[in-house]
Write a sequence for this structure.
């Protein structure tokens, strides 16, 4: 099939015509009710890598898993944790270290009951060193979790215990303010031991190789092409799930996705930045606050990036304002790693922390020369920059131009599908990589602890002893005010030493058909929840 491409102008003309001709005909219509099938059509940029909650890491997989699985808590419409598999909020001990959850009567998609044992199994499986979970660290607040994962303790010492089928007791190392939010994150979901063992290495790699306890089941999965959700008839709160079916096409190209929206093949589409001004005053224009940052990750095992001054030179060579001016529109230049919407001790973390880096080409040139002298080299090697194989390649082109102009370095852009890009990063097969990171929960730690030297997500191998000390202390510090000061200091070290080069904080804009109601978007964790969506007044 020939792939159709739409220029920005063609999309603008076609969509404007649709808005003018179509809106008046259905905005006032009433909800058509259960007599008509409720179907939502979406597009996503990338193929999910893995739906195994002990192993998944990418944004695409998190979005899917959050809608087909459910943990003890889930993020509600107000982005606060609310009971999911838990029948109510947990009982918390006076020292705030022990949480006791009572499970509701809930079933898996095959009719088997969801039990506390499914949670204990799933969490300990993610922590098992043999599982090689990149996200095991998110369970470290639990007593004995880090020790078990790092081979210094046993599964029996981990502070999660199914007291019976309906009661789960969790013991933390120290009180933390965001533990309930953690239990809504996908790694804290339950798993069925019999299903995991039945499929082995193939578990959760196809729609029929797992079971589901969330609002939807994944009914079809055509790899690299599309997937489909269907309403889970066994879900405990199915009466509040309106959608019968969700069809998702994988479309990396932003213009093709816009074309599908214009032709009514998609009900929601992320808006390309060059079209924001054209549609920001229409009824279909929707914005979403995002706890997302883009940054450059250096591989410190690659010759020149082991040198701090050269990394700093690269970071200072980036003109973040120019990146925004060349098409990012509402995004915000980043001088730190924690986005503005992330909460701190009192108010937002960013309100208390500084922006630690900005464009300074002359200083960058000086640091480059000093770094090259320290390494005893006269010329820089060619650099490969890994990027996403979609419209974000255009941002990479601007980065390439800036780095070449200031530093004289030759940059080769290597656009890759998300799965292949991640695999190369995980294996350390990169020089420099362009990364998008969304927080898992609403706390600065979700943006900072992945740079700890022992974190499995620290693919570039950057290491700083003082940084590690501050992160470790912040994980367990019950003095939340002092904890924030430590995290501010940690972020300062990370950015000023160019462990990474922050680029910009993301803001998102969408076009969404007016008949799509109650699509809940989250600034952290999964980007959206479909549980409450309904189709109302579709022509």
């Amino acid at each position: 099939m020939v792939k159709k491409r739409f220029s920005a102008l063609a999309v603008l003309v076609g969509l404007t015509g649709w808005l003018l001709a179509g809106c008046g005909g259905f905005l006032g219509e009433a909800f058509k009710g259960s007599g008509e099938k409720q179907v939502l059509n979406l597009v996503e940029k990338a193929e999910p890598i893995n739906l195994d909650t002990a192993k998944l890491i990418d944004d695409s997989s998190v979005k899917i898993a959050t809608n087909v699985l459910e943990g003890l808590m889930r993020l509600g419409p107000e982005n606060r944790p609310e009971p999911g598999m838990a029948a109510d909020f947990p009982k918390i001990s006076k020292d705030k270290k022990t949480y006791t959850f009572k499970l509701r009567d809930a079933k898996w998609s095959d009719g088997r009951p969801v039990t506390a044992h499914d949670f204990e199994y799933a969490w300990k499986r993610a922590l098992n060193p043999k599982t090689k979970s990149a996200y095991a660290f998110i369970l470290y607040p639990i007593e004995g979790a880090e020790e078990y994962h790092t081979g210094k303790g046993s599964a029996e010492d981990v502070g999660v215990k199914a007291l019976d089928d309906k009661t789960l007791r969790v013991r933390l190392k120290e009180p933390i303010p965001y533990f309930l939010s953690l239990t809504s994150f996908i790694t804290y979901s339950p798993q069925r031991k019999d299903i995991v063992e039945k499929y082995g290495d193939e578990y959760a790699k196809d729609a029929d190789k797992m079971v589901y306890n969330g609002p939807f089941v994944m009914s079809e999965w055509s790899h690299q092409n599309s997937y489909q959700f269907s309403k889970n008839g066994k879900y405990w709160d199915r009466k509040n799930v309106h959608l019968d079916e969700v069809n998702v096409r994988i479309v990396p190209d932003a213009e093709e996705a816009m074309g599908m929206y214009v032709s009514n093949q998609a009900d929601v589409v992320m808006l390309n930045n060059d079209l924001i001004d054209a549609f920001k005053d229409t009824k279909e224009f929707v914005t979403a606050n995002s706890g997302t940052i883009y940054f450059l990750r250096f591989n410190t095992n690659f010759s020149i990036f082991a040198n701090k001054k050269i990394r700093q030179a690269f970071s200072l060579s980036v003109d973040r304002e120019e990146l925004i001016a060349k098409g990012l529109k509402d995004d915000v230049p980043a001088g730190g790693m924690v986005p503005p919407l992330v909460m701190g001790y009192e108010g937002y973390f960013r309100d208390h922390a500084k922006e630690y880096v900005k464009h300074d080409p002359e200083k960058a040139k000086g640091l480059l020369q000093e770094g090259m002298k320290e390494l005893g080299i006269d010329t820089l090697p060619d650099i490969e920059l890994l990027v996403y194989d979609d419209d974000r390649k255009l941002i990479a082109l601007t980065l390439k131009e800036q780095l070449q102009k200031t530093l004289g370095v030759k940059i080769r852009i290597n656009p890759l599908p998300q799965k292949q890009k991640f695999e190369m990063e995980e294996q350390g097969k990169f020089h420099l990589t362009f990364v998008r990171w969304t927080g898992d929960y609403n706390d600065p730690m979700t943006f900072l602890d992945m740079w700890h030297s022992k974190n499995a997500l620290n693919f570039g191998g950057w290491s700083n002893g003082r940084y590690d000390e501050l992160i470790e202390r912040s994980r367990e510090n019950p003095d939340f005010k002092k904890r924030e000061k430590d995290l501010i200091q940690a972020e300062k070290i990370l950015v000023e030493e160019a462990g990474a080069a922050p680029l910009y904080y993301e803001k998102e804009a969408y076009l969404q058909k007016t008949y799509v109601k109650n699509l809940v978007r989250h600034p952290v964790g999964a980007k959206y929840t479909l549980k409450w969506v309904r189709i109302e007044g579709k022509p």
In short: DSSP finds 17 helices and 23 strands in the chain. The radius of gyration is 24 Å. Residues 1-34 have pLDDT under 50 and may be disordered. The first helix runs from residue 8 to 22.
